[in-house]
Amino acid sequence: MRWVLTVVLVFSLTLTAIACEEGEEAATATLSPSLTATASPQLEGDVELLDWMPHEERTWTEGLLVSEGVLWESTGLVGESQVRGLDRETGAVLWSVPNTEGEFGEGLVRAFGKTYLLTYTEGKAYLFERDGEPPYTLFATYEGQGWGLTATEEHLVNSNGSANLYYRDPETFEIVEEVAIQYRGQPVQRLNELEFDGTYIWANQWQTSYIYRILEQDPSNVVRYTLPAEVCPGSTPNGIAWDEEQDIFFVTGQACEKIWKARFQ
């Protein structure tokens, strides 16, 4: 009788152990997905248009930035290229300096105590001084085309119409790094005007209404924004400037009659 009770007891304990193991496995199977799940990366963002101001419709915007309370703009087209300052509230032209070299002006940035300007196909980068004699002095030459230009804390960054960003030495303009930009696994061709807000590089894509937000420390983190049609009807958006003081962006385009204040969500 004692032997029978022992067998029954052992059998009962074995069933209990098996039940406990199965319960633990079931609990693990239930918990594992929630423990390992990660949030999907943001791929699309929203644009909020706040207000607008007039912009000379014939202006072919290539570079746009805010510095010392003034909206700086570089414009293109041979014989019409210039660097000028605009009032941030009215869009009125405060001053303008034509490119006396007759070259097609492109991206513009103020950084490292200087103002740099690219040219389209001439392969020349200039330093600009509004009151200088002359106002445009040759800084460096480079291969390929010049499109957008911005700067991080350590480097100049330019685009050339490809899907790559080029980090350059601010003293020599030599390339120190080349970064390929992709969105949903595809190269983002025709990267154009650039802006850096301290965290993200923002880039227009020429011949589209897209603006891409690129995490500077991790360029694989890319979000795309679609500018509303009213930003630049009938033409190509180009030009994005971060205004840290007002916590807004200015956006416009080539031959666009308005400059918009906007926020990106």
Question: What is the helix content?
Answer: 10-25%
What structural category characterises the helix and strand content? Answer: mainly beta
The CATH superfamily of the largest domain is: YVTN repeat-like/Quinoprotein amine dehydrogenase
Indicate the CATH class of the largest domain.
Mainly Beta
In percent, how much strand structure appears in the residues? over 45%
CATH-derived topology of the largest domain: Methylamine Dehydrogenase, Chain H
Biggest β-sheet strands, sense, barrel: 5 strands, mixed
Uncertain spans = 1-39
Annotation field: number of helices: 1
Radius of gyration: 28 Å
Distance between the termini: 78 Å
Q: What's the SSE pattern?
A: HEEEEEEEEEEEEEEEEEEEEEEE
Shape: globular
> How many domains, in number, for the residues?
2
Overall pLDDT score: 86
Give me the CATH architecture of the largest domain, please.
7 Propeller
Strand order, sheet with most strands: 1-20-19-18-17
Number of strands: 23
